[in-house]
Structures are given as C-alpha cells and as structure tokens.
Amino acid sequence: MMIAPLMRGHCTVEVLVSAWALCAVLIAAAQKPSITVDEVGTLYINSTKKVVVNGINVEAAFAYLFEATTSMWSTPEQLVISSATNGAISVYAADLDGDGDLDVLSASVDSDKIAWYRNNGNSTFSAQIVISTAATGAHSVYAADLDGDGRIDVLSASANDGKIAWYRNEGNGTFSAQIIISGAAGSARSVYAVDLDGDGNLDVLSASHNTGMIAWYHNEGNGTFSAQIVISAAANSAHSVYAADLDGDGNVDVLSASQNDDKIAWYHNEGDGVFSPQIIISTAADYARSVYAADLDGDGDLDVLSASWNDDKIAWYRNEGDGIFSAQIIISTAADGACSVYAADLDGDGDVDVLSASYYDNKIAWYRNNGDGTFLTQLIISTAAGGARSVYAADLDGDGDLDVLSASQNSDKIAWYRNDGQWDWKARFNVH
Ligand SMILES: *[C@@H]1O[C@H](CO)[C@@H](O)[C@H](O)[C@H]1NC(C)=O
Ligand SMILES: *[C@@H]1O[C@H](CO)[C@@H](O)[C@H](O)[C@H]1NC(C)=O
Ligand SMILES: *[C@@H]1O[C@H](CO)[C@@H](O)[C@H](O)[C@H]1NC(C)=O
Ligand SMILES: *[C@@H]1O[C@H](CO)[C@@H](O)[C@H](O)[C@H]1NC(C)=O
Ligand SMILES: [Ca+2]
Known about the structure:
This protein folds into two domains: 42-71, no CATH class; 82-429, Neuraminidase (6 Propeller). It is 9% helix and 40% strand. It has helices at residues 3-10, 17-29, 58-68, 425-429, and strands at residues 34-37, 43-46, 52-53, 56-57, 79-82, 88-94, 103-108, 113-117, 129-132, 138-144, 153-158, 163-167, 169-171, 174-175, 179-182, 188-194, 203-208, 213-217, 229-232, 238-244, 253-258, 263-267, 279-282, 288-294, 303-308, 313-317, 329-332, 338-344, 353-358, 363-367, 379-382, 388-394, 403-408, 413-417. The strands form ten sheets. The chain has a four-stranded antiparallel sheet, with no helix packed on it. A four-stranded antiparallel sheet has the order 6-7-8-9, with no helix packed on it. The structure holds 2-acetamido-2-deoxy-beta-D-glucopyranose (NAG) (4 copies) and calcium ion (CA). One 2-acetamido-2-deoxy-beta-D-glucopyranose binds next to strand 1 and strand 2. The site of one 2-acetamido-2-deoxy-beta-D-glucopyranose has 4 residues, from loops.
C-alpha cells in the first residue's frame, strides 16, 4: 500500500534512509512491462500486472474459460495395479517397505484377502503379495505403526468373522500372521487407527454393521490391545468410522456413518478416550456409507463429508466452530450408489478437493473446491471401476502431486490414475 506513492518520487524526501534503501531495491527488482517481437515473429506482451484489452482482463478471462470448459481436462488413463483382487472393496497406501515411496494395500471381500503391491519406484507395482487370507469377508484395510517400531503395520476389518486384526510389519514389508485384536466386532465394516487417549500409541476403531456399534481398542503400548470398549450402539448398521478433532480441544473425536438410520454422527472425546453419547450431525444421508473430515472452507476447523448410497449423494456439513455443524450441503447427487468419500488437494491450489467412488455407475470422480467450500460440477476420473467401492489419494509416482487409487468390487481391480498436473492452466499453456 505504501510502496506505490513512495516509488512515485517521494523516495528521497520526507522518508527515513532505511525506507529509501528499500525503495531503491524494489525499483531495481521490478520487471518492466514490455511488448516485443522476436526474430521469428512471436509477439510478447509481458505485463507485471494485468493485461487489459478493451476493458477485459485477459488472464482472468482465460482462467474462467479453463475452469468452465471441463472438456479441456482429459480423463486420466486407468492404470491397473492388480486384477487378482476378487471383490476388491478397500484400498489404501503407505510405505510398507521403508524405501520412501508409497505402496498400495487392498482388501478383497470375496477372497478374504489382505494384500499389498510394492511400489517399484518407477510408477509400476509388483504383483500381488498376500498378507493374509484369514480376514473372512474382508471389508476394510488400513495401515499404521501399532507397535512403535517405526515400521508401518497393517489392519483389517472383516465382516463374516467379526474380526478386527493386525499384521506386524517384520521389516521390508514382510508381515506376521494375523493377530486378532477382537473377534467381537460383529459384521465389521471399517477400521481406523488413531491415538484416542493421548498416550502416544495408536488405538484402533471399528464400525460394526449388524450391532450398530462404534467401538475402540486401547493400544497398551506394544501392539497389545485392550478388550473392546463400546463408544455407541446407536449407529444402526454402521458402515464407516473416522476420527478427527472436531471441536479443537486437542482430543481426537470419533465420527460414524450408518446406513439404516441415514446418520452421520460424532462422539465427543472428553479426554482419555471417554466419549459423549452420539451427537447427530445429519439424518439426511440416505443409506450413509462413508464419512470423512477435512477443512473444506479454509476457516481452520474440520468439516465433515458423507457419501450416501440411496440418494447418490456426496455432501458436507460445515463446522461452525466447537463441533456445531450446519445442515447438509450437497456437493453432488451424480454418484450413483455413492459409497466412499475422501478429501485431498488434487489440483495443488492449496484447498482441499473431494473424491468419490460410486458403485452403480462404476465411477471415480472429484469435485474441485473453489477455496470456500463451494465446488465445481463433478469431474469424472474414470467409469471403468466396475462396482467402485473405495477411493484414496496418494502421490504414487513421487512427482509431488496426489494421484488417485480405486478398489472396484465387480471388476476385481485395484487401479490408479496419474495426476499429470493438467489442472494448473498456466503451467499447461506456458510456452517456456
Ligand atoms: C517476456 O517474458 C518471457 C517469459 O515469459 C521472457 O522469456 C522474456 O525474456 C520476456 N521479455 C522481455 C522483453 O522482458
Ligand atoms: C521398474 O522397476 C522394476 C523393478 O526394479 C523393473 O523390473 C521394471 O522393468 C521397471 N519398469 C520400467 C518401465 O522402468
Ligand atoms: C526387500 O525385499 C525386496 C524384495 O524381496 C528386495 O528386493 C530388497 O532387496 C529388500 N530390501 C531390503 C533392504 O532388505
Ligand atoms: C505389552 O505391554 C503390556 C502392558 O504393558 C504387557 O502386559 C505385555 O507383556 C507386553 N507385551 C510384550 C510382547 O511386550
Ligand atoms: Ca510396526
């Protein structure tokens, strides 16, 4: 604000010597606008501010057209990691062999299998490496260092044997046999790991479909777990569990999505892993299947996202502060059989975008955040994910942007979609 008048000739008068020095530096550093033609006849208009043609800001107009013309954005190729995942239902990524790149994990419901795929470091993956086939009706896979040895262990939830289990990483991605945390998780649909009582160890959370139960298992410190501690049994046919500090008090709260009561709800962590009764965020998520939390409007607190199957809906709930949530805000109803939602900055513009997987239209899609929690229309990543069940984002090729992963049940596929950075229109059209 102060600089423009200073540069217009007041540099040497009425100001301190230090300000004069700053002024001189700014003038020296400032690139001068120019219009030039080179030998081959290319005309360069180099502006240090705006280029205005008859009142139109040319760069702003280009940006608008690029955003609006989504056909300029090519759909990425589906890169299949494995077709050996009979009933692929869950996908996750973590560096399992400690070589610095992200490996991929899968759960397959029809083959009771938890498996991984080693990232070769050159955008290819190894053949499937089976961790266990003892997760009967496997529904969910996650990874976290449960025993604190610096290696990332693997977790599973399996529906047909009611098991929450883990597999100790013995180093370089070799795993122990299945270690059962609990066999009392009913029709277990979802597993997550987070430190709930603030003792520095990662505890485990589960969602149980048939009992409507959200529960946790206390990590005693070396991957030994307490018996099941029930948080709530009021999540009728619970399908998804997640955790995040929703009211900013430093304790990690718990979130659930449950099908039969169409409910997105949370449980306030009172400290030390003691939870409040269920607090309903919404019952407008018809056959709720998935819940996630991220700061979508950039106001510093975590908002909540849902995917619901019957109304094909991806929606969010604005955190008004202290864990008070707005009514449902719909992002899209074009996700036919919506069953998985995730959030990540896919276009690298600093805000968090939203991803969905939907079963009936075999679709992996995303919704570009304008930065304030308003979203552009659905952008399709793929419709080749037959019976899509799970979506996740991770930088698999190590180029600094986030790629997308899918698990599709009917096509038995774990696949990824490379982010080629095309969303940055200036970079895309820059001739230099
Ligand atoms: C104009 O900008 C381009 C880069 O965009 C640069 O290569 C060129 O040297 C600039 N020309 C002038 C005259 O500043
Ligand atoms: C990628 O790396 C793997 C393992 O080192 C190697 O077998 C494969 O040939 C490489 N592929 C490409 C395309 O470089
Ligand atoms: C890890 O295992 C892979 C595959 O068996 C092998 O190629 C690699 O050398 C191992 N690395 C270490 C550090 O043991
Ligand atoms: C793990 O910690 C628990 C609680 O401190 C203890 O009872 C158990 O013996 C330990 N197990 C191992 C394998 O160190
Ligand atoms: Ca470990």
